[in-house]
Amino acid sequence: MIELTPAAVKEIKRIQKSRQQPESYFRLAIAQGGCSGLYYALELCETVPNGEQPYDLEGVSLIIESKSLPYLENLRLDYAEDLMGGGFRFHNPNAQATCRCGLSFTEKV
Asked: Fewer CB under 10 Å: which end of the chain, C or N?
């Protein structure tokens, strides 16, 4: 399963509130593209797409795209701020390599 750190939970809730969607779902998926071949796609959804399962993690209603599940097994999602601003940090044991931005990765073969 996926782990959300307290900082990630706080940021997700902040985003939901700032967009006036406090009851929305936080959807996590993997898409083709990015610097390394695959990238993380994040969005807020008002409804659960067909065939997808919502999970309640640390008070966040999380949707994980079904076909993305194998890529996200044991993912740890964190949020951190630095001199360049804030952003989600993905700690993915299923990634063989990641790009410098941290949003794109190559899957383990």
From this structure: C
